[in-house]
Design a protein that fits this description.
There is one protein chain. By secondary structure, the chain is of the alpha/beta class. Helices cover 39% and strands 14% of the residues. The protein folds into 2 domains: 150 residues, Aspartate/ornithine carbamoyltransferase (Rossmann fold, 3-Layer(aba) Sandwich); 156 residues, 3-Layer(aba) Sandwich (Rossmann fold), CATH 3.40.50.1370. It has a 5-stranded parallel beta sheet, covered by helices on one side. The chain is globular. 43% of the residues are buried. The structure holds N-carbamoyl-L-aspartate. The site of N-carbamoyl-L-aspartate (NCD) has 11 residues, from helix 4 and helix 8.
Length: 331
């Protein structure tokens, strides 16, 4: 039987020796997309490509054997938590998942975030944290000595989602520069929109923002875009942009962030992506969604080859494999 010499194939031994000192991510917290520039993105995406090859050829390897990841989720999650766990396990590492059951932990007894994190870091080498408060990951990082990866801090940021979104755009369309990207939905509270928009600022793109009046992109972010000279336009109808865009990035209205549910009711059915609407879109474009969707993309759009959201999910695991390996000094 042909044995694949994986370390030789990917030149792993040499990379491991070098990585700790050169990758720029070793032992670093990943809190915001502000930490990334085109060079570091290109590094992560190259490593992601290698992870894709490895996963396709042999499924799993032992790159992170001996390392443990704690996944701590104070908010619901399916994809982010499962993909981090899958990523760690495919690389031979171990996981402590504290996800759906946080209400059964000492948090329910009133333990603070910092105490919980200072405890969990004694059991692991890296922590992935999702928490409803903006800035929570940064607070944890201030006190903890193991790297903290922000998996969503309230309506703030979701940097690893933005990495996988950008990776997906590049993989699907072959480039990022020159593209016209429309963000649709809850632009005010949607943290994936905030992070992806910031990342796209490093590229030569045009941006279209489609939302109800009450859920427009935060003003500071909009002003940053304008000051950078990026071509931006706002609209309240998908019909106004769909024919001209390369990427339609759809998001759900973030019900849990509304203090007044009556306001949510007013906007919840703001738009729907249907096959009729897709008939107006270009042949070479993609529809993305960080998921979960709650009605904003009709199920029969899934058959359209331009619907990229489940391919996006797969990329999420691969990007997180690359990031975990980089943070632990093994890629
Ligand atoms: C997103 C999130 O949690 O911000 N989901 C995800 O991580 N894929 C988007 C959302 O919840 O709407």
């Amino acid at each position: 039987m042909n044995q694949i010499d994986l370390p030789k194939l990917f030149n792993l031994e040499e990379k491991r020796r070098e990585a700790k000192f050169t990758n720029g991510f070793y032992q670093k917290d990943i809190l915001s997309v502000d930490q990334f520039d085109r060079e570091s993105l290109s590094y992560i995406f190259t490593r992601t490509g290698e992870m894709a090859e490895m996963a396709e050829m042999i499924g799993a390897c032992d790159l992170l054997a001996g390392y443990t990841l704690a996944c701590v989720f104070y908010e619901p999650s399916t994809r982010t938590s499962a993909s981090f766990i899958a990523a760690m396990e495919r690389l031979g590492g171990r996981t402590i998942p504290i996800t759906q059951g946080i209400q059964y932990s000492s948090v329910s007894k009133g333990e603070s975030l910092v105490d919980t994190m200072l405890t969990l870091e004694k059991y692991c080498d890296v922590i992935v944290l999702r928490h409803p408060e903006i800035g929570s990951a940064a607070t944890a990082a201030k006190y903890c000595s193991v790297p903290i990866i922000n998996a969503g801090d309230g309506a703030g940021e979701h940097p690893t989602q933005a990495l996988l979104d950008l990776f997906t755009i590049r993989k699907e369309l072959g480039r990022i520069d020159g593209l016209r990207v429309a963000m649709v939905g809850d632009l005010r509270y949607g943290r994936t929109v905030h992070s992806l928009t910031k990342l796209l600022m490093s590229y030569d793109v045009s941006l279209r923002f489609v939302s109800p009046e009450t859920l427009r992109l935060p003003l500071t972010l909009m002003n940053n875009l304008i000051n950078q000279g990026i071509d931006v336009r706002e609209s309240d109808k998908v019909e106004n942009v769909i024919a001209d865009v390369d990427v339609l990035y759809v998001t759900r209205i973030q019900k849990e962030r509304f203090t007044d549910l009556a306001q949510y009711e007013e906007v919840k059915d703001f738009f729907e992506i249907t096959t009729d609407l897709m008939a107006q879109a270009r042949e070479e474009m993609i529809v993305m969604h960080p998921l979960p969707r709650v009605g904003e993309i009709h199920y029969n759009v899934d058959k359209d080859p331009r619907a990229a959201y489940f391919r996006q999910v797969h990329n999420g695991m691969l990007v997180r494999m690359a990031l975990l390996a980089a943070v632990l000094g093994q890629a």
